[in-house]
Amino acid sequence: MPEPHPPRRPRRETVTYASAHGDPAHGVVPGPARRPLAHAPARSEIDEQTTLGHTYVRSLMRSQLRAALTALAALALLVGSLPLLLALPAPEALVWIALGAGVYPVVWAIAHWYVRRAERNERDFTGLVER
Fold first, then answer.
1. Taking a C-beta distance cutoff of 8 angstroms, is the pair 56, 45 a contact?
2. CB within 8 A of 47, min separation 6: which ones?
3. Backbone phi and psi for residue 7, each to the nearest 5 degrees, phi listed first
4. Residues in CB range of 31: below 8 A, 6 or more apart
5. How many helices (H) and strands (E) does the chain have?
6. Where, by residue number, does the polypeptide cross the bilayer (predicted)?
7. What's the average model confidence in pLDDT over 36-58?
8. Domain segments of the chain: what residues?
């Protein structure tokens, strides 16, 4: 009895290059032309240090400075009001409670606001650059 032939494997093909316009002879159907990915215009403006790129970076720096000065003003208002609070005739325990329960949570809230604002400024800037 003759030996059966082993099953044939399908021929393997390696694609090394596909034309952007397609090649109907090889089964590649023309589709929409693909543009190579390029950097966003804002990013290239910043990388090349043009006047427009400088303006983008300067706007980020201004928004960060505005947030920092706002937080600083809130802290100065808080710390500036402490001598008035301490000058009030009150028991010493009440002053310590006001300092511990009143001042530190406000300082934490200001710091939390500042961090969130700075992150939002950077996220907005990144969104502008990536578009």
1. yes
2. 39, 53
3. -60, 145
4. 22
5. 4, 0
6. 67-88, 94-115
7. 68
8. 38-130
